[in-house]
Amino acid sequence: SVLNVVDDKTEVREYFNTEGFNRWNKIYSESDEVNSVQLDIRTGHDQTIQKILNWVKDDGDISGKSVCDCGCGVGSLAIPLAQMGADVSASDISDAMSSEAARRAESLGISNANFYTSDLESVEGKYDTVSCVDVAIHYPTEQMAGMIGHLCELSDRRVIFSFAPKTWWFVALKKIGELFPGPSKTTRAYLHEEEVVKKALEDSGFKIAREEFTGTNFYFSKLFEAVKA
Ligand code: SAM
């Protein structure tokens, strides 16, 4: 329901401004203050980022092209893309996350990336490449198609999108996880069917050009590159 969606967003924003920020800022760094599960997630996430950067490198020069990274976190993708010369505009619903991304970029002397706080649905403009990595886990199934439609509207050419795939095995794992939630507060997690994501991209006029899957013990992410059909 609409109320549920509002709840989800408020919860996600609060989480990533507080406990979630502390947790993910450590995971998305080189800090050794992580446990073995967090280290595993860091490794998996690094692999997803590297696969995207390899695609971009294989295509040639991204310098001067515009990139819009939605749900940028601490800038794990936006920062290396800026270092490759892309003109980056990156946002996150969490002010703590987008501020940390800006801080990291500044400390690296990056001037061709702009970070700001925004809900994905409020992002505007037109960009060569629109990316949205590991954000869909916070979107209920019924909100997915609309979210992907918005990302596609922002894109002139390409959308890079990743999500935790809904297979019977991950559904089972997630159930087990819910039985043993552990001490730390988290948010609800939504898995998505590959076919549903593909259809949403196709309905918005895009077709899958490349795909990858990355799985470690605790990290699972399906990655699509979709280009304007
Ligand atoms: N994309 C980054 C990366 O791969 O390093 C961060 C991934 S992190 C698991 C998910 C991020 O999505 C968080 O920083 C969270 O604040 C952000 N997020 C969740 N819902 C969002 C929304 N509706 N609009 C913008 N950002 C959102």
Automatic annotation (TrEMBL):
Q: Which SUPFAM superfamilies match?
A: S-adenosyl-L-methionine-dependent methyltransferases
GO biological process terms held by the UniProt record = chlorophyll biosynthetic process
- Domain Magnesium-protoporphyrin IX methyltransferase C-terminal positions: 132-227
Q: Does the keyword Magnesium apply?
A: no
Molecular function GO labels? magnesium protoporphyrin IX methyltransferase activity
Against InterPro entries, the record matches this protein to:
Mg_prot_MeTrfase (IPR010251), Mg_prot_MeTrfase_C (IPR010940), SAM-dependent_MTases_sf (IPR029063)
UniProtKB keywords: Signal
Per the UniProt record, one Pfam family is: Mg-por_mtran_C
This one is known as Magnesium-protoporphyrin IX methyltransferase C-terminal domain-containing protein
Where does this protein come from, organism-wise?
Triparma retinervis
